[in-house]
Design brief:
The chain has helices spanning 3-6, 11-25, 28-35, 39-48, 63-71, 77-94, and strands spanning 51-54, 57-60. By secondary structure, the chain is mostly helical. The chain has one domain. The chain has a two-stranded antiparallel sheet. Strand 1 (51-54) and strand 2 form a beta hairpin. The chain is elongated. It starts with a helix and ends with a helix.
């Protein structure tokens, strides 16, 4: 199959095909060579439709998942100290 044929399918089918080929061939470059297209074309098509490459697979970028990860990300002690200092300055700057 060539890219001109593949890009006619819906985005979920394209992502599924690319992910299967990534497992089989191991690289986006190898897939691009078979499809006779530049690998950036494949990546841009998927990225512009909400997909993100994680662990060599394209997954739908889910905002709920990202919000969960961001909310449960461990804080750096420097971030906490900076936040505490900023709160202290804001509190006593007004008074």
């Amino acid at each position: 199959m060539l890219w001109n044929e593949l890009k006619k399918y819906n985005i979920e089918d394209i992502a599924l095909y690319i992910n299967e080929k990534l497992i089989e061939l191991g690289s986006l470059k190898a897939i691009a060579d078979i499809l006779e297209v530049n690998e950036s074309t494949i990546r841009k098509k998927l990225n512009s439709n909400g997909y993100k490459r994680i662990n060599n697979q394209f997954v739908l970028n889910d905002d709920m998942f990202n919000d969960f990860v961001e909310a449960n990300k461990p804080f750096d002690k420097h971030d906490l100290m900076g936040q505490a200092l900023l709160e202290y300055i804001n509190k006593y700057q007004k008074g």
